[in-house]
Amino acid sequence: MIRITGVSKKIKKHDVLSNISLNIEGIYGLVGPNGAGKTTLMKILSSLISMNSGKVEIDGEDYTKGKYVKQNKLIGYLPQDFMIYPNITVEEALDHIAILQGIMDKLKRKSTIHKVIKEVNLRGHENKKMIELSGGMRKRVGIAQLLMGDPKILIFDEPTAGLDIEERIRFRNLLRNLGSERTVIISSHIVEDIEFLSTKIGVLKNGKVVFEGSPNELKAHAKGYVWECHVTQDNLGSIMSEKEVVQIMEEEEDISVRFFSVEGDAKAKQVSPRLVDGYLSVVRDVKR
């Protein structure tokens, strides 16, 4: 359990974070629009930047030291863009990082590297140069170097940014496996990234917490605001210009369109909300 209490951060007199309080556990999804303060909060938790005020506790112990979270081996942080030593192989890169982490025994390093490569599904790619890897594979190398330190908390900032659909699915499955034994924080502005992963969700907007709870509780915020209708291809353009469409599905004879609307529509039927619908209602401060 990570308990964040009253964390605030100013940058050039601008309130990037304002009195943030969250209780983080399990696989935790931190979502919000671009500029909501997610990355700033992740960097504070990872001891990379200071905060102006607040406290961070981990399993009941205060980890706040002055304006920083104490540096420790409990937390591993993977930024959005990870690249290291582009012209050396995966194994060489991990070996170098292991030495920097203090693993000086050669046999222990080899064993540790073999273990983490297996855990992130990179077997068979050990001799590829970093620059030859896909975006998803580079991120997996990033996770591997975190796992060598055996952190109990893993923080990922926009982990699926820039990945194609296939790599995104693989990466989601990897994050789910990692979350079985660790606390995992996934920061993203893409709600679908955390829809099937998170056991708890926090939503930030303009540096403030606007929601924290379970996925079902977030969905409930949109109850009564999600509608579905069936249109032809000829009519699709007009409904997209008139409604806030959240999903389009082609069916045998027509097109199914889901849209978000507070006022509703006489020609459409109400349907059960998904996570993205709840997110929209919270971010737009729809009053129930």
What are the key terms here?
single chain; 288 residues; alpha/beta; Rossmann fold; 2 domains; six-stranded mixed sheet; four-stranded antiparallel sheet; 9 helices
Please render the helix and strand layout as text.
Blueprint: E1 2-11, E2 14-24, E3 27-31, H1 38-45, E4 53-58, E5 61-62, E6 64-65, E7 68-69, E8 75-78, H2 90-100, H3 106-119, H4 135-147, E9 153-157, H5 165-178, E10 183-188, H6 191-195, E11 200-205, E12 208-213, H7 215-220, E13 226-231, H8 233-242, E14 244-250, E15 255-260, E16 269-270, H9 275-283
Parallel strand pairs: 3-10, 3-11, 8-9, 9-10
Antiparallel strand pairs: 1-2, 1-4, 4-5, 6-7, 11-12, 13-15, 13-16, 14-15
Model description:
The chain is of the alpha/beta class and 288 residues long. The chain folds into two domains: 2-214, 3-Layer(aba) Sandwich (Rossmann fold), CATH 3.40.50.300; 224-271, no CATH class. Helices cover 31% and strands 30% of the residues. It has helices spanning 38-45, 90-100, 106-119, 135-147, 165-178, 191-195, 215-220, 233-242, 275-283, and strands spanning 2-11, 14-24, 27-31, 53-58, 61-62, 64-65, 68-69, 75-78, 153-157, 183-188, 200-205, 208-213, 226-231, 244-250, 255-260, 269-270. It has a six-stranded mixed β-sheet with strand order 8-9-10-3-11-12, with helices on both faces. Strands 2-1-4-5 form a four-stranded antiparallel β-sheet, covered by helices on one side. Helix 2 (90-100) packs across helix 3 (106-119) and helix 3 (106-119) crosses helix 4.
